[in-house]
């Protein structure tokens, strides 16, 4: 590729980065604005972050979001890992069909997912609450955990497990000392992704949340309808910061798992 083509590609990449991240930078910048008027800059302050500590509604929404994210992450990590391990033992034809079903929550639009779950809960006469939000988050988080753990299992191969079995290890010993340490980085990365998705989810939660199960994204949406304030910008900035940290940790765990080429000696 000539220099002109490289320069055009570089310019295109720069413009895309500006298009994607400039709105986020504006939210972060105006979260420190020393006025409630979002259109003018009046100075730098941390007051809006401090005011979040005294906001009862923000605390309630934060507790709801964290409790829902923790429970849904734990359950989806276990179920997603078990699904990846189970499908690994099936034939390629059977595994292909079930793979499609497990990928479906990743592919379909969130609004369809939320509406379908709302219809399901209404048919089951299940009252909308934190429980319904947890079930909904487990439904889509499970697929992401499955994808990450399956990729880890595909790269792992079966040589070490077969060697452990040849050396007299039982099925549980093989899983505990060989399989689990190998897939642990994928499990942790999948759990971090599931936690991030649960914490940031709005669309699905909006459909299945009850009056006493308002999450932070739903609370932000309700406040924005009244007007964007620096306090909301501060809350959004904190959510962005937490999300970025969790995604970086997930990526670190995935890279760490890929970089572990040297295997430990089998303990048998």
UniProtKB/TrEMBL annotation:
Main location: membrane
Cell membrane is among the record's keywords: yes
Entry keywords, A to Z: Cell membrane, Membrane, Transmembrane, Transmembrane helix, Transport
Membrane topology according to the record: Multi-pass membrane protein
Annotated ABC transmembrane type-1 domain residues: 62-250
Localization annotation: Cell membrane
Pfam families assigned: BPD_transp_1
PROSITE patterns, alphabetized: ABC_TM1
Segments traversing the membrane: 7-32, 61-85, 97-121, 133-154, 175-196, 202-222, 234-254
One Gene Ontology CC term in the entry: plasma membrane
Any GO BP annotation: transmembrane transport
Record family assignment: Belongs to the binding-protein-dependent transport system permease family. CysTW subfamily.
Protein name as catalogued: Inner membrane component of binding-protein-dependent transport system
Lineage: Bacteria, Bacillati, Bacillota, Bacilli, Bacillales
């Amino acid at each position: 590729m000539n220099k002109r083509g490289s320069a055009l590609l570089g310019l295109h990449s720069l413009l895309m980065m500006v298009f994607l991240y400039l709105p986020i930078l504006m939210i972060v910048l105006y979260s420190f604005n020393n006025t409630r008027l979002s259109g003018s800059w009046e100075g730098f302050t941390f007051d809006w972050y401090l005011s979040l500590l005294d906001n009862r509604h923000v605390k309630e929404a934060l507790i709801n979001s964290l409790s829902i994210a923790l429970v849904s992450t734990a359950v989806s990590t276990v179920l997603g890992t078990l699904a990846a391990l189970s499908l690994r033992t099936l034939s390629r034809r059977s595994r292909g069909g079930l793979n499609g079903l497990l990928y479906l929550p990743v592919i379909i639009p969130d609004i369809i997912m939320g509406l379908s779950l709302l219809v399901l809960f209404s048919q089951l006469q299940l009252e909308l609450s934190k429980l319904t939000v947890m079930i909904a988050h487990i439904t889509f988080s499970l697929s992401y955990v499955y994808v990450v753990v399956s990729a880890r299992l595909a790269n792992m191969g079966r040589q070490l497990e077969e060697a452990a079995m040849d050396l007299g290890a039982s099925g549980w010993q093989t899983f505990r000392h060989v399989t689990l340490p190998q897939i642990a980085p994928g499990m942790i990365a999948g759990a971090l992704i599931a936690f991030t998705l649960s914490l940031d989810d709005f669309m699905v939660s909006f459909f299945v949340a009850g009056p006493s199960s308002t999450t932070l994204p739903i609370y932000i949406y309700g406040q924005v309808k009244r007007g964007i304030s620096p306090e909301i910008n501060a809350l959004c900035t904190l959510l962005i910061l937490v999300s970025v940290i969790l995604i970086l940790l997930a990526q670190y765990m995935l890279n760490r798992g890929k970089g572990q080429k040297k295997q430990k000696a089998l303990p048998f």
